[in-house]
Write a structure and sequence with these properties.
The complex is a heterodimer. Helices cover 53% and strands 7% of the residues of chain A. By secondary structure, chain A is an alpha/beta fold. In chain B, strand 5 and strand 6 form a beta hairpin. Chain B folds into 2 domains: 30 residues; 102 residues, Sandwich (Immunoglobulin-like), CATH 2.60.40. Chain B is built from 2 helices and 11 strands. Classes of the chains: A alpha/beta, B mainly beta. At the A-B interface, helix 1, helix 4, helix 8, strand 1 and helix 10 of A face helix 1, strand 1, strand 2, strand 7 and strand 10 of B. Strand 1 of chain A pairs antiparallel with strand 1 of chain B. The structure holds protoporphyrin IX containing FE and iron/sulfur cluster (SF4) (2 copies).
């Protein structure tokens, strides 16, 4: 229920952001990559900052760094703003995964390691703030000690170190610095674990978005240097504190709460997050079944093995009387995205009910049930995309654009459809990760199972439009209808320079393989 | 749909900059750490825990089966000396009760007490005395303080022992 409501809100925001930025550059779809980018910026800027940080005089060294207007000041600010953006990106990323139901089954490892990544990110951020040793850092350290003292770990209260009777030992700042530097190593290890179950993880956003984001962060760092408060003074209560909402939003509440309540809230939140894979797992009878490869039909071409976005398929030696290898699906790694079904020319693999053969059976019924659709554009596509929301055209829906077998498109064109508009989600928002990418490759770039050469490509087009982006769908339909009208004029075929058409598609493919704009490369 | 028109590009840039500025602003929110006009009294020290050693000759039963050269002349038990800590502010008791080191043979006794107090002038009395039963154990020294201080808002008044084991007050005026 919550998931559905949140998902609708998120999809609406996606729709508007697609309109403004274009689905290819929509930063909301790149949140995981943006988080990695921020971590990389933090790492590079951190290496510079560490050269000037002194555990013997922490605050003074920050003041000194801040006193270098062309070096330290903006590098420190960039470090800070990248850390803030990392939290925003991670939050958006996790929320998307939650709303899209990508949190259970084989994805549980990614989810759980993601929760640990958040924890590590916060440890890194909080130790970073203590390093500054202003009033904010003092309060964080004192509250941290107060919370630890409530646990039966230490025989003496560690809070006493902050009583003010003695100067803080530099061992404290050393420990803090050590954590701040060691935790990123943990982050790298967990990140590796996080993406270990996906094939070809996309770790960074596309170049232009990468540079624009880094540029914007740098401009912000130059224009508004990161703030810090007055120096810590253990014999004064920290009065005026500059909070960073992304990392220390909880401080005002924790300050006035009993340690037991804080621990309880923390443990409850952590447990709830870790339990999401169990809580969001559909009931056994509603769980999509994993893919299955038929040893009888499989020719051992390895295409599904190459295409599976979750490395869930292995090629194993045949045990029957035929030579060679056969595809074998690992059900515990398969998320049932159905993308392998679109890979297989002999239609021998796919989740039950969604193989190429199943789709062909369905499309025959579809053509029978929509006799009038022949003269119109038929929408084919992913139920999660704008095609799922369209009510005006005859539409043939599949579970993912990557699940679509090219023979379905061929069948529709040969049945007399004026045009087939295949509607996919924006490439980076595919819940099966690589559906739109493989779809375009199969329809226009000869990837197995390719759309046969005999099919008139001018009557096939791909559009990328999320569920709440009717504008992109309408624009793609309008363009397509116009081009088809031109095509349907008597003698139109004579005007078409087939070589130029192929070249156009080829150039567009080399510049931009996953997304042929709104489909123009394909059929215009 | 791609960003084709200038108004849309302009709007997209404006939104990105607004989001960035919001982020920058949220990373520097001023917060007056409440309570705004409070002061704090801290009482803090860590002393080696004096122990009360009691010895007695072994009983025959205890010596039975022990080789002659292994027989102890006496059997001793060490027990940490418990203290009593009373803290009074303007005659009102803030804390009163025993303090002991952790465990039966603790090596140190740690005191760390914090109290929110109103700013202004105050009389502070701190008494740290060994419990009567063990008062004469070696090292079981009492510490006490009776002082007047003035705390401004945000001040921390710290009561701690000096190198000679005498309590003193720092902070405030
Ligand atoms: C530092 C924090 C994080 C970073 C840098 C990060 C980055 C990434 C990246 C790069 C991917 C691969 C995306 C792809 O190629 O499709 C990914 C996948 C994933 N992330 Fe994160 N992530 C972080 C935190 C989280 C959190 C907090 C969660 C949820 C609690 C989460 C849940 C997932 C899931 C479930 C996937 C797998 C998606 C799939 O298999 O379809 N991540 N993450
Ligand atoms: S794509 Fe089909 S034929 Fe090729 S390996 Fe996979 S199951 Fe076998
Ligand atoms: S459905 Fe096919 S492509 Fe998708 S994860 Fe399972 S085996 Fe891989």
């Amino acid at each position: 229920m919550l998931k559905r409501q949140l998902g609708r809100v998120l999809s609406r925001i996606d729709g508007w952001a697609d309109r403004l930025y274009g689905s290819k550059w929509n930063p909301l779809y790149q949140s995981g990559g943006l988080a990695v980018l921020c971590l990389a910026v933090m790492l590079v800027t951190g290496i510079y900052l560490i050269l000037f940080y002194r555990i013997g005089a922490p605050y003074e060294s920050i003041v000194r760094i801040d006193g270098q207007p062309w070096g330290g000041r903006w590098i420190r600010s960039l470090h800070r703003y990248a850390a803030d953006l990392a939290v925003v990106a991670v939050f958006v990323h996790a929320l998307r995964m939650f709303c899209q139901g990508r949190s259970w089954g084989p994805r549980a490892l990614a989810w759980v390691s993601g929760v640990f990544l958040v924890f590590l990110l916060y440890v890194c951020g909080l130790t970073g703030y203590v390093m500054v040793w202003d009033t904010h850092g003092q309060l964080l350290a004192a509250e941290g000690a107060r919370l630890l003292d409530a646990l039966p770990i230490f025989s003496e209260p560690i809070s006493r170190a902050f009583a003010g009777a003695d100067a803080l030992p530099s061992a404290f700042f050393f420990m803090n610095l050590f954590l701040h530097i060691a935790v990123p190593v943990g982050i790298v290890i967990f990140l590796w674990l996080h993406v270990s179950r996906v094939a070809r993880p996309v770790l960074l956003p596309p170049r232009p978005l990468l540079w624009v984001t880094t540029g914007l962060l740098t401009v912000a760092a130059l224009a508004v240097p990161a703030a810090f408060g007055p120096p810590a003074d253990l014999l004064r209560l920290p009065g005026e504190v500059t909070l960073d909402i992304f990392y220390t939003f909880w401080l005002p509440w924790v300050r006035s709460a009993a340690p037991g309540v804080v621990w309880l809230a923390g443990v409850a939140a952590g447990t709830a997050l870790l339990a999401v894979p169990l809580l969001t797992r559909p009931r056994a009878d509603r769980r999509p079944a994993p893919s299955h490869a038929s040893t009888r039909l499989c020719t051992g071409c390895e295409q599904c093995y190459t295409d599976c976005p979750y490395d869930a398929i292995r090629m194993v030696e045949r045990t029957d009387d035929r030579e060679g290898t056969v595809a074998l699906v690992n059900p515990s790694a398969c998320v049932s995205c159905g993308i392998c079904a679109g890979s297989c020319a002999p239609m021998g693999v796919g989740p039950p009910g969604r193989t190429g053969r199943d789709q062909l059976g369905r499309v025959k019924d579809f053509v029978r049930e929509h006799p009038g659709a022949g003269g119109d554009i038929v929408l084919v596509g992913c139920g999660r995309s704008a095609a799922g929301a369209d009510g005006h055209h005859a539409r043939f829906l599949v579970s993912c654009a990557g699940n679509l077998h090219s023979s379905v498109v061929e069948y529709l064109v040969r049945s007399g459809a004026r045009g087939v508009l295949v509607v996919a989600c924006p490439a980076r928002d595919c819940s099966g990760r690589e559906g739109p990418k493989w779809l375009v490759e199969r329809l226009f770039h000869e990837r197995e199972a390719e759309l046969k050469a005999r099919v008139d490509r001018r009557r096939v087009r791909v559009a990328h439009a999320s569920a709440f982006d009717p504008w992109s769908l309408a624009a793609a339909l309008g363009d397509f209808a116009r081009d088809l009208a031109r095509l349907d004029q008597p003698g139109a075929d004579d005007d078409v320079d087939v070589l130029a058409e192929c070249e156009l598609a080829g150039t567009a493919a080399s510049q931009d393989p996953p997304l042929p704009g709104t489909g123009r490369t394909a059929g215009s | 749909m791609s960003v084709t028109t200038w108004p849309r590009r302009f709007l997209a840039s404006l939104l990105a900059i607004a989001a960035l500025l919001t982020m920058v602003w949220l990373s520097r929110v001023h917060w007056r750490n409440p309570p705004a006009d409070a002061a704090e009294l801290r009482v803090s020290w860590r002393i080696p825990a004096p122990s009360d050693r009691r010895c007695r000759p072994p009983t025959d039963a205890e010596l039975e089966g022990v080789l002659p050269h292994m027989r102890p002349a006496e059997i001793c038990t060490d027990e940490a000396v418990p203290f009593r800590l009373d803290i009074l502010l303007d005659g009102d008791t803030l804390r009163s009760g025993p303090v002991a080191g952790a465990g039966r043979r603790a090596r140190a006794i740690t005191v760390y007490e914090r109290f929110a107090i109103p700013p202004g002038s105050h009389g502070i009395v701190v008494e740290f005395v060994p419990e009567a039963a063990n008062a004469n154990a070696p090292g079981a020294r009492a510490m006490s303080l009776d002082a007047s201080v003035t705390a401004a808002p945000g001040d921390v008044i710290l009561v701690a022992p000096d190198d000679n084991g005498r309590l003193y007050v720092s902070g405030g005026s």
